[in-house]
Request: fold
Amino acid sequence: MRSDDGAPTLDVAQLEAKWQARWADAKVFEAERKSDAPKLMITVAWPYPSGPMHVGHGRTYTIPDVIARFHRMEGKRVLFPMGWHLTGSPIVGATERIRKQDPAYVAMMRGLYAVSDQDLARMVDPVAFARYFTSESPLGYRKGMQGLGYSVDWRRECTSIDPHFSTLVRWQYRTLRAKGLVAPGSHPVKFCPAYSSSVTDHDLSEGEGASIQEFTLIHYTAGELHFPAATLRPETIFGATNLWLHPQAEYVEAEVTLHDGSRQRWVISADAAYRLSFQGYGVRELTRSTGAAYIGQMVQVPLCDRSVPILPATFVDVTHTSGVVASVPAHAPFDLIALQELQQAGAPPAGVDAAVLQALLPMPIVAINGDSSLTARTLTKMGITSQHQREALDEATHEVYKAEFAKGVMTVGFVRGQGVGAARDAVRQKLQASGHASRMWEFTLKPVIHRSGAPCVVGLVKDQWFLRYGDEAWTASVREHLHKVSLIPADTLTYYENVLEWLQDWPCTRAAAVGMGTMLPWDSRWLIESLSDSTIYMAYYTIAHRITQVDPKRIDDSFYEYLFYGTGDADALSVSMGVTPRDIEALRAEFEYWYPLDWRVSANELIPNHLTFMLYHHNALLPHKQPRGIANLGMGILEGAKMSSSKGNILPVSTAVTTYGADAVRLYLMNICEPWQDFDWRNRDCEIVRRQLDRFYAYVDGLPGRPPGRAEPHLDTWLRSRVAGHIAATREALEGFSTRKAVQHGFFYLANDLRWYERRGGDNRELLLSIAQLWVRLLCPIVPHLSEELWSRIGPPAAAMCSLSPYPHPPMDWASGSAETLEGLVEQLVEDIGQIYKVLKREHAPRVVLLCAPAWKRAVLRTIVDAKSKGPLEVGALMKSLMADQSLRAHGKDLQKWLPKIIEQVRTRDVATLELLLQTDEAALWRSALPFLQAEFADVFEVVGPDEGGDAGNKRGAASPGRPAIYVEGGVAT
RNA sequence: GCGGGGGUAGCCAAGCGGCCAAAGGCGACAGACUCAAGAUCUGUUCACGUUGGUGUUCGAGGGUUCAAAUCCCUUCCCCCGCACCA
Reply:
């Protein structure tokens, strides 16, 4: 806290430490069940501690803390646990970089991450590394969370590699396997031959975003020799006129062992032979030559009773797929142009019969609306004349493929009449069934380069285990539950639904050699992958503090059957586990009490994986305890730039806390935008929030020392009503995770109203103190340290800690629509005078007179308001009926001018407000505000009531009820 | 390409049929306080205006409506996710 001159008068750090210690001593956040009390369990994705906790994490974890604190004050038993996710390879990768003394990484650790040489030396061990950033480092997660004052039950702290935790994961996977939801399979992945391991986009220096595409290899044969031509369009086989090989590139003849163990002799590019060897094919090179060696040879076309020649083409890319290409000139721009060039050349290439070459004609097999000339027309349209115009040809190819896929119909073969898409599947299936097709995978873009600099290939992982998220029955069941889940924000529902649509089986294992985690129970060569071991771990929190008393070796599946389902024999379990039957019952009671999870808090980017996985696993394993709500958070950037631990662009939480104070950081983070929106941390803005919080503290702290002041009925009623409204709005906001709205109402708007109250002359100390008692509790979930301190100073004697005191409700009878409407008239008046002053270019006047509207205007307003409830307001008709009134006719001219204006106002205001206006003694209202108005605007301020005479400055005609005419002395008289 | 989310005054950002020239914050300008600076408080901040008004504005174009930033259609632009990874 700083005083006016900026000198520190209050040690925020000391105050924070004091209350954090008191919370810990009083075990305020240790969640104990109480069978007759309502409960709330809220969890947030457990952090992966690969570096310091930065302010981005700070927001992620502060949001559930605020919600937890709110519900705790609501009288619920609240469990907000925390653990550490250590599964996976990045930490192991980091220790590797330390071991190898990667200069950039080591420099960052020593510098930005403030790791001592001594600590760094220990951190070559992944467990030591993780412990450093979870628990030891001042910049780490536990210190950061404690520094922000989180209401976590730290007794339940655990990690994903604890032996106790692994017993749960093993149970989970055995059970899923028994249900048929985990199954073996194989899958193509990005693979780094240099490291013999699959790699993710994260590990790449180039080719991020490349995906893997499956090609069909169609076997054209010459005797025993196979020419596997790669294609995405197997249906075009009917239009194949020849094969292309690159005449100068290297090809091999190889003995290839297929997936079923059979062997064939293939001709493929030398490069393809290398790449195929990672895709589950055994490849043994026999001979090597250039493509030219095969030019002119005839090969048999499968499914078609004909043979075609092999011709040379330089556009063939031997580093792509097999290096063997089937030519379909009628439907492939490359093929058409290459064939034309060849036929137009003076002499045929060596080995090719001129007659055979000239006889080759495009064979159309696909038509769009009866037309098969799209390829030729596209070439003409784009002015392509040579196979070297690669870019143009690529574009033409794309265009033709797309059009024919969308609208093309087959004109030949057994698929005649079918659409291209359907025909493609049918032809591929028939080729495979007859042994004329194989599969090969290729990247959609190249090159794909590992961080180490090694080029990657597509690799086929065999014996991989999959979670069967593609299973229709499972997915349908998840979808059904999804519609019962409270989602924040609500529009994430469509996102989840889309994920359920496209989510396929998920490989849930990784080679045990890389990373930490739980072994696959039935095959120790595999580790359960990190996203897959964290799907029901929230259930583990319910017992995490008690299960540690049991030797993990003595925990088997029957324990979890009992814990989750209550099946089995507790006495037998107590014997096998070496604890009392009461212990077993206590564990089960914990789970039964806390579960299901009320809120899961996580990031938007985890919807397509973790959050959906969580729903699947709960659905299969804990169908009686599925999650009730999921809140999704946006991501953060720092001063406009992406936050990245690896790039060093971070602000550690503990640094922010030291600089601004825990509560200022919390308040800033909760106010910056709503949780689900992306945010941008700005130091300057946080500093501004810090100052505003200082003012809040000084204001509340100063209240008891003020003179008593006096009650002012209208103003006090108005303030109570405003405060009641803000309390209601803040509560509602917190119910829905709208932390920003909560801060706006609970902090800023309320403060603005207090300022207005005092500006208006309000000084009722007792009222302000009673409001302050509500206010500090209202803000306690967001700024708990300052709230506790203030509560201890101004709260009722012997009150419970603020964190355990009831969250305020709007006090009964505080709401007063009429007081707010009346004060609204004063605000309107102030604005009107301000506008007039602006036009007059002045700030003060010797004399101002308010001229209230005469009584007849009130009568007219009465008539119009009555008319409003009967139907649409029409100026003409109203004028007619009003002029029928003798007493009004005297004001005919004024009425004619005024009526359209007042009707417009009646039209846009609700009846209750208008009624109030009609009942108000406005002269009394203005007179009660005279001291204020005089202080703000003029030396002398006068009011002329509705029934009084006088028209200073001849202004009175402008008056409406509730909006007096304003005469400013020194203004221009009209 | 597929899917999700956005474009609001100098900036951030609320609003999502009438009370909207549009909350709140920042920045800027002016005043009060101060020897001064900072902090704080007050006012102004689309244009015009010697009386509270008028005109134009919420990516662009069109439409529905007595009334549109808000609803519908078309169009342009930006961000995010698309998997074996935390």
